[in-house]
Design a protein that fits this description.
By secondary structure, the chain is mainly α. It is 65% helix and 0% strand. It comes from Zizania palustris (Northern wild rice).
Length: 561
């Protein structure tokens, strides 16, 4: 079945109605972010109306996809030249197809790592370095020293080589001085050349300057790159057709998940009075999908979406809506995770709390007897979270500003929700995730700590002005201003440097041998969630003011490829 027929089936299965058209103008964004209340949902009950294709139609689509997978597998196995291996694997990864060929790609990367290559070609050296480090190979950055002239500048003859060096340089660790220099040099050169470039190279350079390739959310990169790959004269038709069909099947799955979590959210609202909180269930699913997008992570996405919705509600309660006394009562109830604790709570908290406990029970049922133990770790995460919230309330009520940014981060990196997101993402995964995995994560290893730091600092940069309009504890930016006697602008510049340090620290852990970091999937998943944090806080707080990401959400869920 050709892909155009498959997509026609997909289009016929989508919702008959469309989400409300909401302008994404900067004026609306400013109005929404400055308002004392959060803007309403951009999606409402849209996904409740989703009608999937019939089982027979879906079977046809999957059957065609399986045929194409084998065609591409033969292509992979027939690759032997270094330049072709590099191009093929990067293409498969950008198109979101690499998870189907993990064994074959591992063999190709092993070959690439051990075989000779042309170390005089900057473009090929950059691509090889990028690909190997992206996949956890600790290759030395010293190879780039050979490409510097007497003045210390990199010798690059064309824009493509500059671009690939730029992307490679962002896979740096602390101490990779040559890559810091490459980042500075290529950024300056690419910016100066951009106005003279024409599409599609101009588009690729512009996108890279906004977000380097390694830091892009993989599923969003897939959505965008399919259209780019389609225009390439060197494209492989089987790969292109498989990429389109695979993405279409993913959209169907995502819409089914959204129907489920929207119904769950509607039921929660019916049982609780949550009109004060941010109505962002679709945005949460979008965010979580960025961290674990593959089809076999469906249960992970569903559980994550529900748990992160709870985190958002608790954040709104502790941050802006509830009294200190009520917050303390709720924290004490969460410490027990027992229905009997509900009697001390005001009604709106009581109803929420009981549904909170009921959802834990349903998660245990979904996980089954062999994995239900994982819910214990989720409960522990929420206990630690509200403990941190209570500490921040104390700061707020006593008008206390931590004396150093590190003192602040000792609490605030635990309350941004990043640790909870990363740990809970593994709850719905397969048997490769064990009790030992969770025990290790609960020690807050460096890669998790760096991710939480990045998330906290990124959040503070874009949300400081909004949050400080009310009664709120001091953020890391204000703490840094007080500690060093700087302006907000200078403090923000320094915070951005600290974010870059966090990326380097994560990369250092990512390149550590797998035996020392539990499993490769853990490190890769944490890196994926770091990418989502970068995306969600790139322009503004896109979770709170979600007009900014509405078009991309439509591209991921609604618009046919």
């Amino acid at each position: 079945m050709p892909v155009d027929i498959a997509i026609a089936i997909y289009q016929n299965s989508k919702m008959a109605n469309t989400p409300a058209k909401i302008c994404s103008s900067s004026q609306q964004v400013r109005e929404a972010s400055s308002s004392s209340t959060f803007h309403p949902s951009l999606w409402g009950n849209f996904f409740l109306n989703y009608q999937p294709p019939t089982a027979s139609k879906r079977a046809l689509m999957k059957e065609r996809a399986e045929v194409l997978k084998e065609e591409v597998r033969k292509l992979i196995k027939g690759s032997s030249e270094v330049s072709k291996i590099v191009d093929l694997v990067i293409t498969l990864q950008r198109l979101g197809l690499d998870s189907y060929y993990e064994t074959e790609i591992h063999e190709l990367l092993h070959t690439l790592y051990n075989n000779d290559y042309n170390d005089k070609d900057l473009n090929q050296v950059s691509l090889r370095f990028y690909l190997l480090r992206q996949n956890g190979y600790d290759v030395s950055s010293d190879i780039f020293v050979h490409f510097k002239d007497e003045k210390g500048n990199f010798v690059a003859d064309d824009t493509t080589s500059l671009l690939n060096l730029y992307n490679a340089a962002y896979l740096k660790t602390r101490g990779d001085k040559i890559l810091d220099e490459a980042t500075e040099f290529t950024t300056r050169r690419l910016k100066s050349e951009l106005e003279h470039l024409k599409p599609p190279l101009a588009d690729e350079v512009s996108l890279a300057l906004e977000t380097p390739l390694f830091r892009r959310v993989r599923i969003l990169e897939t959505r965008n790159y399919i259209l780019v790959y389609e225009t390439k004269a060197t494209r492989n038709e089987a790969i292109l057709e498989l990429a389109k069909l695979n993405f279409t099947l993913l959209q169907l799955l995502y819409c089914e998940e959204l129907k489920h979590v929207t119904q769950w959210w509607k039921e929660l609202n019916d049982e609780s009075n949550l009109s004060f909180t941010r109505d962002r269930i679709v945005e949460i699913h979008f965010w979580m999908t960025g961290g674990c997008s593959e089809p076999h992570y469906s249960l992970s996405r569903i559980i994550l979406t529900k748990m992160v919705e709870f985190i958002a509600i608790l954040d709104d309660m502790f941050d802006t809506y509830s009294t200190t006394d009520d917050c303390i009562k709720l924290a004490e109830a969460i410490y027990t995770c027992n229905e009997s604790a509900a009697v001390t709570l005001p009604k709106y908290m009581k109803d929420f709390y009981l549904y909170f406990l009921k959802t834990f029970d349903s998660c245990e049922d979904e996980l089954g007897p062999n994995k239900s133990y994982r819910v214990f770790y989720v409960k522990e995460l929420f206990k630690r979270l509200v403990q941190g919230y209570c500490k921040e309330i104390k700061w707020r009520d006593e008008h206390y500003i931590p004396k150093t940014i590190e003192e602040h981060l000792e609490v605030s990196r635990k309350t941004v929700g990043a640790i909870e997101v990363a740990c809970i993402s593994f709850v719905g995964m397969g048997d490769h995730i064990t009790k030992g995995t969770f025990d290790w994560l609960f020690t807050h290893p460096e890669i998790l700590k760096s991710f939480a730091t990045l998330s906290r600092l990124s959040n503070d940069i874009v949300s400081t002005k909004r949050e400080q309009t009310g009664d709120h504890h001091a953020c890391t930016i204000q703490c840094y201003m007080l500690q060093h006697g700087t302006t907000m602008q200078d403090a923000c510049s320094k915070i951005k440097e600290l974010i870059e340090h966090s990326w380097k620290d994560m990369m250092n852990e990512y390149l550590t041998p797998a035996d020392d970091r539990q499993t490769t999937v853990v490190a890769r998943t944490i890196i994926d969630f770091a990418r989502t944090a970068d995306y969600m806080y790139k322009q503004s707080d896109s979770f709170t003011v979600s007009h900014i990401i509405k078009d991309m959400m439509s591209s991921l869920y609604v618009d046919p490829i």
